[in-house]
Design brief:
The structure is a single chain. This protein is an alpha/beta fold. Helices cover 41% and strands 12% of the residues. The chain has a single domain, classed as Divalent-metal-dependent TIM barrel enzymes (TIM Barrel, Alpha-Beta Barrel), CATH 3.20.20.150. It has 10 helices and 8 strands. An 8-stranded parallel barrel has the order 1-2-3-4-5-6-7-8, surrounded by 5 helices. β4, α4 and β5 form a beta-alpha-beta unit. α1 runs parallel beside α2 and α4 crosses α6. The radius of gyration is 18 Å and the shape is globular. It comes from Alteromonas confluentis. This is Xylose isomerase-like TIM barrel domain-containing protein. Pfam families: AP_endonuc_2.
């Protein structure tokens, strides 16, 4: 994968995906990752194709896009047969859409060991009975095998994104991590089962390391070597708040120490700092920037 920088459609807040894409394109951002946060409506696909032609947009799809008719939590590890079937069908649709839009990569979140409420995504979940990690991984790997075959047949590269374990959820669930693939060890266990390529969300990793008492610097250095597809944003280490990436911060200093050449990066910043974050990311990509 040749390195490029994408902007997530979630960086702007609209109910219709075409409105988000147009808003970004009119600001000059034409590499756009289509993500969650919008609602389904008639003719959305044709509108995206029209915008692609009008602005020369390069798309890629991510996780919870396209939006389903009824919102739910996408979970390829779900023990509930109906939820898992809906999740698999959603990914199948996203792969087909990716091919139609000329999008070569599609990333989906790693699974959960419980059934979260979609209304509480990004918040602290209520304590729930957890399926075993082995069972969750087996269900994920079984789904992944068929989905990855479909993706290959459509010329799409399929990626799994590391989950985030917030401080609040660490408090709720204690030492029994309810999420798959939050750190290097649990990512390795999932990859061993399904050989999935890693979409490394740096902000997710920062929070998870803080919750698990791990060195973010060490984990970042190890995992960034294993991925050619990264998500960038920042936070205070307790929750995934999608703050901007800025020069002079601790995160920027750590990113200077790793090799980012030839990696595709998507900015997922929700605080209005798209251009500031883009400038910081471009600075990181300057030849010779890596200190490590």
């Amino acid at each position: 994968m040749n390195g490029q920088i994408y902007i997530s459609s979630s960086c702007v807040n609209n109910r219709k995906i075409a409105d988000s894409v147009r808003q970004l394109a009119e600001q000059g951002y034409t590499n756009i990752e289509l993500s969650g946060g919008t609602n389904l409506y008639p003719n959305w696909k044709q509108e995206l194709m029209n915008l692609q032609s009008e602005f020369g947009i390069q798309y890629r799809c991510h996780n919870y896009f396209p939006p389903p008719e009824e919102h739910f939590v996408l979970n390829l590890s779900a023990s509930d047969i109906d939820v898992r079937a809906r999740s698999i069908a959603h990914v199948q649709q996203a792969i087909t859409l990716s091919a139609e839009l000329g999008a070569k990569e599609y990333g989906v979140h790693a699974g959960f060991r419980f059934m979260p409420d979609h209304k509480k995504l990004g918040q602290a979940f209520d304590c729930a009975q957890l399926q075993s990690e082995d069972e969750a991984i087996a269900l994920f790997a079984d789904a992944w095998e068929a989905l990855n075959k479909q993706a290959q047949d459509h010329g799409v590269s399929l990626y799994v994104e590391n989950n985030v374990l917030s401080k609040a959820n660490r408090t709720t669930f204690g030492s029994d991590n309810p999420f798959l693939a939050t750190d290097s060890a649990s990512i390795a266990r999932l990859q061993d089962a399904c050989q999935a390529s890693l979409l490394l969300d740096v902000a997710h990793l920062k929070v998870s390391c803080n919750s698990l008492g791990l060195s973010f610097e060490t984990e970042l250095a190890q995992l960034v070597r294993l991925s050619d597809y990264l998500h960038f944003s920042d936070n205070d280490g307790t929750a995934d708040t999608n703050h901007g990436v800025r020069e002079g911060t601790a995160l920027f200093s750590l990113l200077r120490k790793v090799e980012l050449a030839n990696k595709t990066i998507t900015l997922e910043v929700y605080d209005g700092s798209i251009q500031t974050s883009l400038n910081a990311t471009l600075a990181l990509l300057q030849p010779g920037m890596a200190d490590g």
